[in-house]
Write a structure and sequence with these properties.
- The chain has 14 helices and 9 strands.
- By secondary structure, the protein is α+β, with helices and mostly antiparallel strands.
- It has 2 domains: 246 residues, Porin chaperone SurA, peptide-binding domain (Triger factor/SurA peptide-binding fold); 115 residues, Chitinase A, domain 3, CATH 3.10.50.
- The strands form 3 sheets. It has a 4-stranded antiparallel β-sheet. Strands 2-1-9 form a 3-stranded antiparallel β-sheet.
- Helix 2 crosses helix 3 and helix 4 crosses helix 6.
């Protein structure tokens, strides 16, 4: 079932602005090269004084320290390679996100949304557990990111308050009537075709130290871990999902390694012709587990969970079709309502953007030259280091409802990570 076209068409109404807690689950991006203020090479317009006020929201200051911490996270440790012009653009983008967050937090306070200490502690502990880090390593990474326990709790408190506000605002959305569901189905028939393909789960071992809770830091450690995993998955009573949650060094471990449904065409594009042919062959049966397959510098141990031999045209009576349409409509209405609520809140707020004013006043001070020896930063757009400001300050997918609507898409739209330079084929299986 391919609902991605309809979902994308509705999701295009999005704007960045709401913090969701989804990005805090692994703290992966949050802990990737974030920290204090900018480097001396990149002060430019915007100053490197962390105490300087970048903006005010109804009199509440947002400092340059907060802005530059978000820029470092967004640039993934490569902000020192940015020119003053690029850095100024990145700062302005993340500042806009921080302003929107502050507006929403103030609205939550005004709406008397109160969080108990137990709620905050529970979310803090959830983050620590999900990070995959030891207590000592977690605290170390917090410190590197410019947080202590108190400031981290405050951040969690703000995120939870905004989330509760959005939930309260969007609680007015009603369940679509059956006629609307039928009309949606009839007008989007092309979305309800389940293509020939497979549903996969994977345990991923990364020999590089990604700083994201990885337990293997070199090829030797990776080889040892792979042997251990293969030994366990080969046992008759093994639980692949449980092993994925325990061993996988990939965010999919939270779903027991589930990568979702992947069409044969997507298999070929992402894994290569040989691996696609291996999974689709009659000899490769559902339930089988592959050997470790090298893909983009990592090792993937796949399990075939389901195979669709032929395209299937679904009907309204097919399992999960009506619930998925209902969820899609509800989630996108919530998304639109939340975005509209925020737009009104932004209009009502008194916002003083000092950083933007400095750029307007001194536009010719911004050099486009990068520091000596700096090439185009990877993982960033050369002109906007913070191209996706939704991840500013460590959170991802700022649009709360956008996350929800994307979750309604079928497994055929799963993120099939590895590319086509895979070595060998999935026929190199274990069982």
């Amino acid at each position: 079932m391919d609902m991605s076209k309809g979902a994308k068409a509705i999701v295009q109404i999005n704007r960045n602005g709401f913090f969701s807690l989804a990005g805090m689950v692994l703290l992966a991006a949050f802990f990737t090269a974030c920290g204090g203020g900018p480097t001396a090479n990149n002060s430019g317009v915007g100053s490197s004084d962390p105490a300087e006020v970048a903006a005010k929201v109804n009199g509440k200051a947002i400092t340059m320290e907060e802005v530059d911490r978000a820029v470092k996270q967004q640039a993934q440790g490569q902000e020192s390679k940015l020119s003053p012009l690029e850095l100024a653009g990145a700062r302005l983008q993340v500042l806009q996100s921080l302003v929107e967050q502050e507006v929403m937090f103030q609205k939550a306070e005004k709406d008397n949304i109160v969080l108990t200490e137990d709620e905050i502690s529970g979310e803090v502990n959830k983050n620590k557990t999900a990070s995959g880090l030891s207590v000592e390593e977690f605290d170390k990474r917090l410190k590197e990111a410019g947080f202590d326990e108190k400031s981290f709790r405050e951040k969690i408190k703000r995120d939870l308050a905004i989330q509760k506000l959005v939930d309260k605002v969007t609680a007015r959305i009603e369940t679509p009537k059956d006629k609307e569901i039928v009309d949606f189905f009839n007008s989007n028939a092309e979305m309800f075709v389940k293509k020939r393909g497979v549903r996969l789960a994977a345990i991923v071992v990364d020999p590089a130290d990604g700083g994201q809770g990885d337990t293997t830091r070199n090829p030797a450690e990776a080889d040892q871990k792979i042997k251990e995993i293969l030994g366990k998955v080969s046992q008759p009573a093994s639980d692949f999902a449980a092993l994925a949650r325990e061993y996988s060094e990939d965010s999919s471990k939270l779903q027991g390694g589930d990568l979702g449904y992947i069409s044969e065409q997507d298999l070929k594009q992402n894994f290569g012709e040989q691996i696609a042919a291996g999974f689709m062959s009659a000899q490769f049966e559902v339930g089988r587990v592959t050997n470790a397959i090298p893909l983009q510098g990592k090792a993937y141990i796949f399990k075939l969970q389901e195979k669709i031999e032929q395209d299937q045209t679904l009907t309204l009576e097919s399992p999960d079709v009506r619930p998925q349409i209902q969820k899609l409509l509800v989630d996108n209405r919530k998304q639109l309502l939340a975005a509209s609520y925020q737009a009104i809140a932004m209009n009502e707020a008194k916002i003083e953007n000092n950083l933007a004013q400095k750029v307007v006043t001194n536009p010719n001070e911004l050099s486009g030259a990068r520091p000596a020896g700096a090439s185009t930063p990877s993982n960033t757009n050369a002109n906007t280091a913070a191209a996706n400001t939704s991840t500013a300050n460590g959170n991802s997918n700022v649009n709360t409802a956008a996350n929800a609507s994307s979750n309604t898409r079928p497994a055929s739209n799963a993120n099939a990570r590895p590319a086509a330079n895979a070595a060998n084929s999935a026929n190199a299986n274990r069982r």
